[in-house]
Design a protein that fits this description.
CATH topology of the largest domain: Rossmann fold
CATH superfamily of the largest domain: P-loop containing nucleotide triphosphate hydrolases
Strand content: 25-35%
Number of strands: 19
Oligomer: single chain
Radius of gyration: 25 Å
Largest sheet: 6 strands, mixed
Structural class: alpha+beta
Bound molecules: adenosine-5'-triphosphate, magnesium ion
């Protein structure tokens, strides 16, 4: 196990800069998740850490060793990719033990380590099978086994679950969590799935266009996003973002399309002198209560009602470009077309300026 340090890491592909100066300290045993939209540089950064790609600038330390120019095999890291190509002609035991065999480790030792890994991953009864005789989830477990058996100081995962179906993904997510709790190996996990990020991470690093926008625990990012980007990215369904302006000390909602005034926020106390820089108010679906039409901060018409048994999401047209989502108790029914008031929890309101920065 080891800590991992990145200092001033940059990456250029020709004229294109895809990693724009990243400083990051990952603690020994920490589970860090890189999230961000497609193309933001997650895989590139992971490949730089793995040594599969050179950094154009900056340095990388693993434990006490500067590994900036080191080849992948000198870094002691194991990587699991989205496309986990197992050797088709080798059975599970041979696949898991392959790296040990090429490293010249004696057969008895290999057998011992493969059995131990198979026990951890619960594939003991599959050791004699070929990859084509396995399910997707079993194959992915073998791929992880191949990585664990090398006893790496760190694990790098690049979207390892995106080829699996939804139910299996949840299952494998739990297994990866359990594995981390059991082995305590420093882990960096790349995904664009914010649910995976929230459930797996000790710390989430949100990337946008090759920069770290915010890093923190899932709770910190959910409750205290530093920007509109993070606010929108973390949380499902997404935070509602409502265009608004300040007018004589009050917040006035506007519709993007017609620049039309909607009903004002009147009784949100700490909003009595909002900043003139405000252009957008964020509120999460669970912080909106539905009430009679004339009692809310804004009002709208129920468009859609998603009943999920333990909760329900009500989608309301309040005159904004996007519908407003409210998460409410499942017992009340909200008829489509009904006019309804939306009351915001004033403690849970986020405000953003033109640049998307939190005010
Ligand atoms: N070898 C390369 N040569 C040129 N450009 C590249 C190369 N590899 C990646 N890029 C570019 O670098 C940017 C970051 O790519 P990267 O694969 O790191 O994104 P990502 O965050 O992993 O995206 P995704 O979620 O789609 O996997 C992209 O714009 C991509 O086109
Ligand atoms: Mg990628």
């Amino acid at each position: 196990m080891a800590s991992i340090q990145l200092s001033g890491v940059e990456k250029w592909f020709g004229d294109l800069q895809v990693i724009k100066g990243i400083d990051l300290s990952i603690e020994d045993g920490e589970f860090v998740v890189f999230v961000g939209p497609s193309g933001c540089g997650k895989s590139t950064l992971l490949r730089i850490i793995a040594g599969l790609e050179d950094a154009s600038k900056g340095s990388l330390t693993i434990g006490d060793n500067d590994v900036t120019g080191a080849v992948p095999s000198e870094r002691g890291l194991a990587m699991v990719f989205q496309s986990y190509a197992l050797y088709p002609h080798m059975n599970v035991a041979e696949n898991i033990g392959f790296a040990l065999k090429t490293a010249g480790i004696p057969q008895t030792e290999i057998r011992k380590r493969v059995n131990s890994v198979a026990g951890i991953l619960k594939v003991e009864n599959l050791l004699g099978r070929l990859p084509k005789q396995l399910s997707g989830g079993q194959r992915q477990r073998v791929a992880i086994g191949r990585a664990i058996v090398r006893e790496p100081v760190g694990f790098l995962f690049d979207e390892p679950l995106s080829n699996l179906d939804a139910a299996l993904r949840v299952n494998m997510r739990l297994e990866i969590s359990r594995l981390h709790a059991q082995l305590g190996i420093t882990t960096i996990y790349v995904t664009h799935d914010q649910v995976e990020a929230m459930t797996l991470a000790d710390r989430i690093v949100v990337l946008e266009e090759g920069r770290v926008i915010q890093a923190g625990s899932p709770r910190e990012l959910y409750n205290n996003p530093n920007s509109r980007f993070v606010a929108e990215f973390i949380g499902s369904p997404k935070m509602n973002l409502l265009p608004c302006t300040e007018k004589t000390g009050k917040i006035v909602f506007t519709s993007f399309a017609e620049n039309k005034e909607l009903r004002r926020v009147t009784n949100a106390k700490h909003l009595s002198s909002p900043s003139s820089a405000i252009v957008c108010l964020g509120i999460r679906p669970e912080n909106i209560a539905l009430c009679p039409e004339d009692k809310g901060h804004i009002s709208g018409k129920v468009v859609l009602n998603e009943y999920l048994g333990s909760e329900q999401f009500v989608y309301i047209d309040c005159g904004f470009d996007d519908m407003v989502t409210a998460r409410v108790k499942p017992d009340a029914e909200f008829q489509i077309g009904r006019l309804i008031g939306l009351s915001f929890d004033s403690e849970k309101i986020y405000m953003f300026d033109r640049n998307g920065d939190r005010l």
